[in-house]
Amino acid sequence: MLNNTFATAKNLGVFTGDRRQSYTLSGVLTRRDRVDIFKLSVKPRASLSSGSGRYTIRGGSMTAAGYIENKELLGDRRVLISQSRLSPGQRPTAVNSGGENPTGSDLVFYFKYFKPSSNRVSYRIKITFAP
Length: 131
Known about the structure:
By secondary structure, the chain is mainly β.
């Protein structure tokens, strides 16, 4: 993925809320490719109330940001719901998912990873959601 945008985000699929589902996000951020974005659709009434994950980062720190999008709830806006700095190493992480999709249409979560420096950073993040 070369500096992808929200429009070109890698699609992780759909969380239906009826079973446990895991997603793996991985990539390499470089001087030329500084941004990776992934998207996950959440079906109406599906709950992301319990999320957990584990990440491995090598080569330097990066920033992780989470956004949501839903025309019924937010109109044409995409809203930043979380942002944090991830340091090199392997760590478990909690996923702040926001609970149930209260709308009648899909809620889209975007996971954006970017780095402020010119160091090469590789990452692998596994996120699991249970109903």
